[in-house]
Amino acid sequence: MEAVRAYELQLELQQIRTLRQSLELKMKELEYAEGIITSLKSERRIYRAFSDLLVEITRDEAIEHIERSRLVYKREIEKLKKREKEIMEELSKLKAPLS
Fold it and tell me: How many CB atoms lie within 10 A of CB 64?
């Protein structure tokens, strides 16, 4: 039974790590986008996609959106790291009696 639980935890750990890596990549994309937006000349237009339409936004609105998104991603990454640590501890407890 412990082997089944360990396998389930390994699968969950793999999913969490994949999701965390995906969010970290999104964070890098946000940093890249912020760099582009802050370096744009003021006469350039910035658009944001909402479902099936594009809306023109200001540079400040774009930066604000990036900052909010970054905070959400950071919060989620921290939750995933915490869960990853919990799983690692649980796995080590399961494997300890086997050694």
Answer: 12
The phi-psi region of residue 65 (left if phi > 0; otherwise alpha if psi is between -120 and 50; otherwise beta) is alpha
Long-range Cβ contact pairs of 68-73 (< 8 A, separation 24 or more): 69/26, 69/30, 70/27, 70/30, 73/23, 73/26, 73/27, 73/30
Read off φ and ψ for residue 55, nearest 5 degrees: -120, 130
- In sequence order, what are the residues at sequence separation of 6 or more whose Cβ sits closer than 8 angstroms to the Cβ of residue 90? 9
Q: In the Cβ-directed half-sphere of 26, how many Cα atoms lie within 13 Å?
A: 17
Residue 44 predicted with pLDDT over 60 = yes
pTM here? Answer: 0.82
